[in-house]
Specification:
Length: 237
């Protein structure tokens, strides 16, 4: 290392970046959890929709059965009337009604049979959907549990890293710490203190620094910043 201030500063940066990393991981956890929760809600909604579709088929079957009941009741009424009529044409007219109604009963019975098949198929399909869906939900719930556990461990890691960072900060000159803090306000992403690549390029933004910046960095006595991105640059002989 070319300067004493640099060693302490690089330790500070290392611990600071570690803190940032833990913080980022910690911040990602609630997002990950809510993503899983949304996926679980979608699975549940799909299962509910499948149940509603089955229920709809059952209602259709019940409606067709109800229709058959009322057609058959009408047939019974027509037959009773037939026994009471005197004229032939009245009898024939009633017979015509009876035939019509019985034909309709036949049609509805076909509908009911078709619906019974559909219901059976739907029940089998729903059973499979439910077991697969529930399995996926279990996997996601287990993932949520692991995320919550990792949240706790990230929090502990962060606390330790923050303590280590404080120690590093206490170990360096206040004006060095201040310069570092200032660079952090100028640069969006770490690292904030970087080496000059090949002695001429800032390894943060990868652009060539000015001759003046390069010369200062090479002397290593004063702190100097990249004139492109604002990171502190240093030179290792
Ligand atoms: Zn730069």
């Amino acid at each position: 290392m070319s300067a004493e201030w640099l060693t302490g500063l690089l330790v500070l940066q290392d611990r600071d970046l570690k803190c940032e990393n833990f913080r980022k991981q910690l911040e990602a956890v609630p997002y990950e959890i809510s993503k899983e929760e949304q996926a679980i809600a979608r699975e549940r909604e799909a299962l509910e929709a499948a149940k509603r579709e089955l229920k709809e088929l059952v209602l259709q079957r019940e409606a067709a059965e109800g229709e058959i009941d009322s057609l058959e009741a009408a047939v019974v009424r027509y037959k009773t009337q037939q026994m009471q009529v005197k004229k032939n044409e009245e009898y024939t007219a009633l017979q015509h009604e009876i035939d019509n109604h019985q034909a309709k009963v036949g049609e509805h019975e076909d509908v009911v049979l078709g619906l019974m098949d559909a219901i059976e198929a739907k029940e089998a399909q729903n059973k499979a959907l439910e077991s697969e869906g529930n399995e996926r939900i279990q996997v996601m719930e287990a993932h949520i549990q692991r995320l919550r556990a990792s949240e706790d461990s990230y929090r502990k890691d962060l606390e330790e890293a923050e303590q280590a960072l404080e120690q590093a900060r206490a170990g360096i000159d206040e004006d060095v710490a201040k310069s570092y803090a200032f660079v952090k306000t100028q640069v969006k992403r770490g690292p904030y203190v970087v080496e000059l690549e090949g002695g001429t390029r800032c390894s943060g933004c990868h652009l060539k620094v000015s001759g003046e910046v390069e010369a200062t960095a090479r002397r290593g006595k004063e702190r100097v910043r990249c004139d492109n991105c604002g990171r502190m640059v240093f030179f290792i002989r």
